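User: Hi! I'm a student and our assignment asks us to look at how structure tokens line up with a sequence. Could you show me two examples?

Assistant: Happy to help. In each example below, the sequence comes first and the structure tokens follow. Example one:
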Amino acid sequence: MMGIRNEHTIASQCEISGRGYWSGKDVRVTCCPAPIGTGIVLVRSDLPEQPECPATTQFATGISFRTNLANGDAKFEMVEHLMAALAGLEIDNCRVEITAEELPGLDGSSLAYVNALQEAGLVIQAAASQPLVIREPVRIEHSGGYVDVSPSDQGEAIYEYCLDYGPHSAIRQQTFRCVQTPHTFARQVASARTFVTADQASQLRQSGVASHVTHQDLLVISDDGPVDNEYRFRNECARHKTLDLIGDLSLAGVTLVGQFTSVRGGHQLNGMVAARLAELAQQHKRNHQATPPSGLHHRRAA
């Protein structure tokens, strides 16, 4: 059936370095090969005991601007761009050693991660992945946004984001939709950058946060367009929201087969959807069903 493939890890170690958006601290991210069934595990290599945190929804906290993970002292901030790169390239097993709590902001996208991981190469492992195949539609709502999860006729993972901040926003209404493959992610999604309005950027600086971040480190958008910058895509903001959606939903810990359409959603809503998907996958695992996990019940979260 569509959606079943072997698990993947990377062929060699690779590194990405930069500064955290919020902390301003230098940080190094080292991605390492991992055995079958490991999943994605984040490691605080700067701490004495090198504590670990599985990159799953069980340990996730979504807030307005980023997704965080915590397992005791193993705390990580803004993991979504790394997670999107791993999920987008279909890397199932990877140990990621990180030298600070906050991951690097880089240029606000997943591009540096994708370039490093592609350079490291991919290894096909001798175990089949376990896809979660969506059989029934469901809508999950939160704070004026919603995500529709529905079956995919062709057995693919399809992601769509509909961005609409209203008629008075500097960021115009836009959409993006893609059938997820490693090639599509690398070419159409990975380079889409984090964005804020000029007003939001000013408020952040006044609050003493991200004072070192320049207009080249992310998109700052005024009524006249990007400030001291240019769009990489006409709908770059919707593409970046799709990137966030892919990264956040990957915390469900399974390969996804279905359609995932977000309308005005953010990290908190994405986290709710990932938790629902993880719950369903665990339910089927507990039941020891021979077929891949499938289906969603009609429940709505307010």
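Example two works the same way, sequence first and then tokens:
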Amino acid sequence: MAAPAAVAEQSWFRSRWERLNGPARIAGVDLARGLAVLGMLTAHLVDTPELVPADPSTWLGVVDGRSSILFATLAGVSIGLVTGGPTPLRGAAMRTVRLRLVVRAAMLWLIGAVLIATGVPVYVILPAYAVLFVLAIPFTRLRARTVLVTAGALALVMPWLQAWLDASAYWRTQQGSRASDLLGFHYPFPVWIAFVLAGLGVARAGIRSLGVQLWMLGVGTALAVVGYGLHGMADPDPMLEPFSIPAAVWTARPHSSGLLEVIGSGGFALAVIAASLLLCRTLVRWIVLPLRAVGAMPLTAYTAQLLVWAVWAAVAIGDTAALIEFRAFEPFAPLTLGIVVGCTAWALLVGRGPLEWLTDVVTRVAVPGPPRRETAAAPVDRLDG
């Protein structure tokens, strides 16, 4: 007969393993999140070339812009799952989850403000995440078709508005620059809400369904081909974008928020999520377990890489903002390995990521509600899937 301590230890490890690999989780969503986090890390730390699909030596450039758009689309997926999955929550349950989304948004903004204060030379995405969470709340009662149609309409219209907003001299003032950082306006919410709603829409459509996953792959691939194909045919000059709204709109340049980027990179995000979901229907899900562990605690992983960067640069250089000097240390490999190993060990030995745990505790204290309800679609009211 096993000793009580051994039984308890076995039960502990089993519960952690089940949390990462059990039926309540969607492994493909975790995988896509992990890819998004590492993609942003690559974009931060590696001097990536401009992507030329016909030139394999430039393929690392795929992370530029697309990783953050994938991250935003997955935020929409998470919001869709915690608000009921295929069937939106109703009544008090929906009100509770919506209020908790507001509290989570406030916490994301605070964490983002701390990361900005470190002086690390990246555009921190968390303030934008916070704004997008709040903007998505009114759409959480809608069905899949309505949300997806709304996402498509915004994707077609908002790049024109954004080009007009970007032309304002306000953003080139000191006050405007500070406001841009605090709003995460490098990831502008008028345009990026389309990505969040696309993610919310596919969660409402039933993201566990094989049919939905194949539809996402097909539609996402088609959109990517159209967006990038039109960009290639037009061969736009980025030097014209500050002086011409049509030039600013008709481009798929990373971080341009142009119409063709919205179509192409939004489609790319849907295709990556679908491919991740389909791959995790196979034995590949066990091969990519470390990436899934990163995706199970994306807030912790994202925050950790920037904090480690800040400490490393402060000690080694004396200036956290010195990007070129920091890249000279070739930090990508050790930081990436540390995050992947650390997240995997934490997920298997401890459980939820520390920041995911903290935000969950704070939101439940701030907005009390009924006990958490587990559904076939996802663990309700948990944004890490």
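Here is something you could point out in your write-up. The chain has one domain: 4-366.
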